[in-house]
Amino acid sequence: MVEVSKETINDKQALIMVTIFIMGSTLIMGVGGVAKQDMWLAIIAAIASAIPVVLMYARILSTYPGKDLYDILQIVFGKVVGKIVCILYAWFAFHLGALVLRNYGEFIKTAALPETPMLVSMLFLGGLALWAVKAGIEVIGRWSEFFIFILIGFILIIGFLSIPLMKPQNLLPVLYEGVVPVLHGTLAALSFPFAETVVFTLVFSSLQTRESPNKVLVYGILLGGLIVVYAALRNVMVLGANYISMLYFPSYHAVSRINVGNFLQRLEISVVVVFTIAGFVKISVCLLAACTGIAKVFSLENHRQIATPIALLMVTLAYIVYKNIMEMMEWAFKYWSSYALPFQVFLPAIILLAVEIKSRRQKTSGKPPAKQ
Amino acid sequence: MILLTIAAFMIIAILELVPLYKERGKEKRTYLVYLTLFLFSFGLAVLLSLGIRIPSPAKAIEVFIDAIVK
Amino acid sequence: MKIDFKLQQNIAAIKNIFLSDQSLVYREFGKTAEAGKAFCVIYIDGMVDKNYINDNVISPIMSMLPRSGQRPTDFAGYIMNEVITSIRIHAASEIDALTQALAGGNAVLLIDDTFEALIIQAHGWENRSITEPTTEKTVRGPKESFNESLITNLALIRKRLRTPQLKCKFRTIGTLTRTNVCICYIEGVASHDILRELEVRLNQIEIDGILDSGYLEEMVKDSPFTPFPLAGATERPDIACAKLLEGRFVLLCDGTPFCVSLPYLFMETFQADEDYYFNYTFASVNRFIRWIGFFLTTSVPAIYVALTTFHQEMIPTQLLLSISASRQGVPFPTIVEALLMLFVFEVLREAGVRIPTVIGQAISIVGALVIGQAAVEAKLVSAPIIIVAGLAGITGFLVPRLDGAIIILRFTFLILSAFIGLYGYLFGVVGLFLHIASLRSFGIPYMLNTGSLKFQDQKDMLIRAPWQTMTQRPQLIGKKNMKRKADIEPNGGKQ
Fold first, then answer.
1. What is the value of ipTM here, to two decimals?
2. Could you say which of B12, B38, B61 has the minimum Cβ distance to residue A335?
3. Among A219, A232, A326, C460, which is least packed by CB within 10 angstroms?
4. Contact A44, A229 (CB under 8 A)
5. What are the residue boundaries of the structural domains of chain B, listed by start?
């Protein structure tokens, strides 16, 4: 075969994957709702605080080029401790994928198909994600590269059409309740979605150069963040902060208000399209990370062979994880931050520390760390 | 419903488990991991289709977080 | 088996191999010392030009005979080099080589008292003359098309590409048909990696016969089970040359006017040769219509079914009213109607291709009146579904290279959207792109550059840019010599 033996994705594809990943369920669920009309401030603050976090991920990755976080953990912490942390991360990716799947299922059920069982749409999307994982990260990258056009196209058209509905006074008063709610919102927005990019450290073993992780993660966060900020601004300006707090899926309602000359209406289908595309990428990346993790823990050669039961388990977990949509929303906004931040910030900080110590020590003994 | 579940899992087993079983000499570990995961998800699916409510892991995490944060 | 010293032994041996084959002609002539015949020409009737053999083989030998009393030592070499006036001739010393040459349409000259025989190429079978292309008609552009002879086809390409950099590598494939296959490429532009891969794959083919380049196309595919074409096919020499100029390879196959071009990208299915001969604005519009046609032909039935069964609120009220009015009294659900009508359309299409043109009229009458009009009046199906099926069917003809894939996609999307409405359709689209994103044609991603933002990558995709701006060859395929205007170094430069 002419094919390259190792899968590689170029920086552009990786960047687009990060961008779509961030748009993932965020566009539809809305983030930083605690901050009310200041949620856009909270999101911008979250982007700002996410950049040092992803720089940390990038530093870990670029110390060991060609390796993913699972390999690095086992190199740095040794086999036993390393594998335990690997299992934790595999679980995190698996759980995150299941949650996104559940969000999607709930969304389809609430917004569009109340009679169809939620399991059907989740099985379909889970099956597609399984297919994507079997096809490999290269294919996901190429797929994203194409679909980002459709995403951006929809977002631009919708943005343009919703301008007449926007009421800028909905953004006022700025910081009416002080800084504290904004900080809460920042924390929430950091853990969902920006620092969720930690999942990419589990799959990006095949970037082009040593500098790629830096570039990809930072620009991905900025681009995805821009779109998330835009969505938040639009929702607040169209619907008003009070109304948003009563809704599960604010974007859906904001877009459904568009009506151009009684002809162009019912455009909320575009929100479904965007969510399907973005959610698909997010779930696929999570599933890929989980499969790679399990394969690495048990030292298997090929993560594709075990993908099917893991995908089935993911759908099952998505199905049983919450009783109803209220529970899902409560969990997403109450527990998620405290559950996810250890994986997203604290553990990576410890890992980075260990990586630095190890590479310093190796430098003094005269061996470069990359030759592990 | 339960029959449908069993049929679906049978198809998956024929498509993926049987080839792995045939090659188990070479990749024993893959086969064992696959088998475990497969049986686990099959068990869960059967329980679900029988209408038995499975406790959500989210609850356990909730308790854990509450214990640490408070 | 070696050739025997005695003429009669050799004739007997060949007769034995071609036992009960009466199309062989044995013409013995000349005289030896023992009053036997000195020469024998053998050929298969109809495959060899008889006049050629007469004028260039038999008469020179006959006129030479009385003059030479003494035989030169290398008699066969003497005959070959100094007597016979033929361009392609060579000596052989194995019976096997002779029988194969005979089966391949050559004449064989056996000579008494030597261990060698001569094989004379004098193909004389009938060929179709060069005509206008039947499947790829154009308003503007060259009107020649390939015919069934490989050599003629090669000449048609050669006379358009007058450069020594055009290389042709021959080989025979098929244990019984021994079909000649030729790989053409432009040295210094085409990638040697792909050439090596192509040769490996051609070597791996094990088959008794190749009757059309379609066999080759399918057997060198990267993913054998995809409905999408992973190699192009054309009967127009100008298209073949355009592919060569872009750095692609063209496989010519004896016995068929269709050549295969590879590697093949998804977007090539939307290109037509006329795009490049007409004004680029018009070409771009046509290109765009083809893309829309692909979308319509795969999606219209699925979207119609999804909208009418799951998302009625998305249809404007007026339209919804008229649709439900026309559905009044129709016994089947929309999905059954749609499946039925699409099936009928496929039947009509297939029948239209198979039946002789003389009774082709009947099909259109039956199709239009009986199945269309009468079915609606009998309330078997509703009127909108006829429009939907018709639209899907007609737009399918805009991208003929994809027809196999289109039928599968159309029915898959339809069934998915019958399950969960537009979401099913959406999942289908996601899956479709997942599939074509995972395809490769000779290692080149099938969706190459579809996600690119660079002008040089997009110039020939959704639109056809003006020729002045198309200064580069496609990425990866023509990477050895990207600039279209630059000179090619002789022998491909440094490897």
1. 0.92
2. B61
3. A326
4. yes
5. 2-69
